[in-house]
Design goal:
Layout lengths: L1 E8 L9 E8 L4 E5 L6 H9 L6 E6 L2 E2 L10 E4 L11 H11 L4 H15 L14 H13 L5 E5 L7 H18 L2 E6 L2 H7 L2 E6 L2 E7 H6 L4 H6 L6 E10 L2 E6 L2 E4 L2 E4 L11 E5 L5 E3 L6 E10 L4 E7 L2 E7 L9 E5 L6 E3 L11 E3 L3
Parallel strand pairs: 3-8, 3-9, 6-7, 7-8
Antiparallel strand pairs: 1-2, 1-4, 4-5, 9-10, 11-12, 11-15, 12-13, 14-22, 15-21, 16-20, 17-18, 17-20, 18-19
Length: 369
């Protein structure tokens, strides 16, 4: 088990910590993904765990023992970088053996471990081929092999698939799942790619400005983002977030953002939710939960201000005044400038308080009239 306790990293000249009092527990044999935009502190966390950088404050413990003062080579941790860091002048065999050679491992042991690792990763046929002649996916397997040959118990992966073509990415993701299952590795995976994180990780830790916003099982965090920042990061496209207040509009409940009213499919609000401009909320609705409609009083009506054709559907941006939202069009039928109306079911809405925290419980009663 790995425990990050109040882990902090500050760099000279920066007004904000790269990692800010971060707490996280990674259980033995699990894969956890650190997911967040560039600059959120993901790579700094990995660098401190592996020992390339020292924490400014806090502790890193493995099975209850601090490793902050333990040398890199004695931590039993492997790290694979985004850029592979392969010696292109060497053969695959030479690259796999490099770390063991530096450690002055006996030659017979090096040969055995290299052959075993090459066999496991399907590299045996190219062991004596120079790395300069390899494809991107082959280079990635060599980078993995060079780390695995040292028999780490913990594997850290820093954006390892970002340089690969889509087909090679898929193959390498399958390879990583197999590695985890067959070797029982504990894997910490850093990425900004949601697809990779969701396909590989048991849990996601969403990071922003050096802190963890939410850590949860992948299925749970998608269904229940606890913060507006998490909701706005997950999904493709992410959740629509409206900022404003609830009020009555000619007998109907509405949510006002700026000068625009969103007519809500609610019969009533919970006592937890107050009407009036003095009470500010964030109202969330996923693009996939919006349906196009011909109703005379829809949830929202706006002009098509953007179209992103994804082949199987289009992401449609709708604008009215200062309010814009995205919906999915599976038919690819809409055009720029067209006026379109959308509706949504009451159970599709998320409500966050003024601070951006998810409000839970029965907050709305659907209008079934």
């Amino acid at each position: 088990m790995i425990e990050l306790i109040e882990l902090t990293k500050e760099y000279p000249g920066s007004s904000q910590p790269a990692v800010d009092r971060l707490n996280l527990t990674i259980f033995k044999g699990e894969t956890i993904a650190l997911l967040g935009p560039s600059g959120c502190g993901k790579t700094s966390v990995l660098s401190m765990i592996v020992g390339l950088e020292k924490p400014t404050a806090g502790d890193i413990q493995i099975d209850g023992q601090s490793i902050v003062k333990v040398p890199v080579e004695k931590r039993g941790i492997g790290l694979v970088f985004q850029d592979y860091a392969i010696f292109t002048s060497m053969t695959v065999r030479g690259n796999l053996a490099f770390g063991l050679t530096v450690r002055k491992t006996p030659k017979s042991e090096i040969a055995s471990k290299v052959n075993d690792t090459a066999s496991f990763l399907g590299l045996t046929p190219i062991l004596d081929v120079k790395a300069s002649r390899l494809s991107g996916s082959e280079l990635q397997r060599v980078a993995l092999g060079r780390t695995l040959v040292t028999r780490p118990s913990i594997l850290l992966l820093d954006e390892p698939l970002s340089n690969l073509e889509p087909e090679a990415r898929l193959a390498t993701r399958q390879e990583l799942r197999r590695l985890r299952q067959e070797l029982g590795l504990t894997i910490i995976y850093v990425t900004h790619d949601q697809v990779e994180a969701l396909s590989l990780a048991d849990r996601l830790a969403i990071m922003s400005f050096g802190r963890i916003l939410q850590v949860e099982k992948t299925s749970v965090i998608l269904e229940k983002p606890k913060l507006v920042q998490v909701a706005q990061f997950l999904g493709s496209p992410p959740m629509n977030i409206f900022q404003g207040f609830f009020h009555q509009d000619n007998g109907y409940l509405a949510f006002r953002q700026g000068a625009v009213d969103l007519r809500l499919p609610f019969k009533s609000l919970s006592p937890k939710v107050e009407l009036g401009s003095a009470r500010f909320y964030h109202l969330g609705l996923r693009p996939e939960d919006l349906d196009f409609t011909e109703e005379s009083e829809p949830f929202f009506r706006g002009q098509v201000s953007g179209l992103e054709n994804r082949g199987f559907d289009s992401v449609v941006s709708l604008a009215n005044g200062n309010l814009e939202m995205k919906a999915l069009d599976p038919q690819n039928v809409f055009t720029w400038g067209e006026t379109v109306a959308v509706k949504a079911k009451a159970e599709s809405f998320f409500l966050f308080d003024k601070s951006g925290r998810l409000m839970e419980g029965q907050l709305f009663e659907a209008n079934h009239d």
